[in-house]
Amino acid sequence: MSKLPKENQFLDLSDYGRPIAVIIAKSLKNTAFTPIHVTIGFVICGLLAIYCILNQHYWATAFFLVLKSILDAADGELARVKKTPSYTGRYLDSVSDIILNLLLLITIWYVTDGSLLYTLLAFVGIQLQGTLYNYYYVILRNKHDGDTTSRVFENNPPIAMEGEKQINVDILFGLYTFFYGAFDKIIYTLDKKASESKKLPNWLMTAVSTFGLGFQLLLIGLMLVLGFKQYIIPFFIGYSIFILVFIGLRRYINR
Q1: Which CATH number do you get for residue 96?
Q2: Residue 89 lies in a domain
Q3: Tens digit of each residue's pLDDT (9 = 90 or more) over 110-128
Q4: Which residues, in sequence order, are CB contacts of 57 under 8 Å at separation 6+?
Q5: Non-local CB neighbours of 11 within 8 Å, separated by 6+ positions
Q6: For the chain, how many structural domains are there in total?
Q7: Residue 162 CB neighbours (<10 A)
Q8: Which range of residues forms the domain containing residue 39?
Q9: Distance CA 55, CA 75 (A)
Q10: Is the dihedral of CA 74, 13, 176, 103 positive or negative?
Q11: Where, by residue number, does the polypeptide cross the bilayer (predicted)?
């Protein structure tokens, strides 16, 4: 089930796992498994990928990174098919992602004996890339009556939905703002008027989807398999220049 109405859907290069995620969600619809269980599953996959990097099992690393991306989509799909959307699941998903991203890059730094400073810059770059993608995507979803569990501006804790506790939402929202607040503010500052955009064309959204976490993890897996592990950190630092390119395109289109 797409997060957007059919007429507004675009080719999302980071969402390659969606078809399998839909199958997984449908198979779990009438079971006791919840979206939170699936989120825990992708956390386990991320940790297994890190273990495989440490032991130079790069094909296995790629497998677990792709599986992690599939399950990352499946938790939201399961919430939709069971009609149990929640802010608890939304924030737990995001907090889990950023912690795994940091651990993954630190692991790559460790096995390549690279620069810790560059690793941290790559982490910042990856998070800013992902923030821009999510920013535009959430704007699009809110404009076209798509899934609205994510909000364009995360300024205050949302009111808990049916079936979840407000205290859980508040705690996870606090963690979310701690981890993502600075990245959100930077992207909002760079493109304050994005939420007023009349047009976010499909081709632009497809280009920006290369900033999505699924695509980022796929690239990391491929680079490890191909023997380019020492280039992963520099690549994500350099690719961050496209943040300004995509913002410039968005402004030009809506001038």
Answers
A1: 1.20.120.1760
A2: yes
A3: 999 999 999 999 999 999 9
A4: none
A5: 202, 206, 209
A6: 1
A7: 8
A8: 6-253
A9: 29
A10: positive
A11: 36-54, 91-110, 116-136, 203-225, 231-249
